[in-house]
Amino acid sequence: MGTVVALEPHRMKKEWEEEKKLLKEINVQELQMSAKKIFVPVLDTFHFSYSFLEEACMDLALEAFLSGGKFSKYVVDNTLPFRYKIQAAVFIKNIANELYTFMSGWVEEPTINEEQLRSAVEEFVTFWWHKGLEAGTKRRRLGFK
What InterPro entries would the database entry show (predicted)? Predict the structure, then answer.
């Protein structure tokens, strides 16, 4: 008789190892600077550095980065096929909605423009998703999988 082996723990371990390798590609200073560049003009009276908002932005940027990195396995000839672009757009939108909801719930500025904030959040999340896609594609091209 054969032995039944659960594959889920092995898949999770492999995914965790891949995420750890991808995270080595991210530059925390670049992440902080991109957040400041994108959000400070929209939230003019808000001091961004070392705040709970910076932590939330970094957390969701990392999530977007890892998501982009995972999509890199679908890249063919340096482009993402259309069907995966649709899935990616859904992932990006979900992460952006989460960050927007958090920010709009915590930031109390009377002059805040909701549309500008939503646009800034989408720009930020999309930027880090694409950075993850580039990092993952580069790793795969170099054979580091």
Answer: Uncharacterised_YbaK
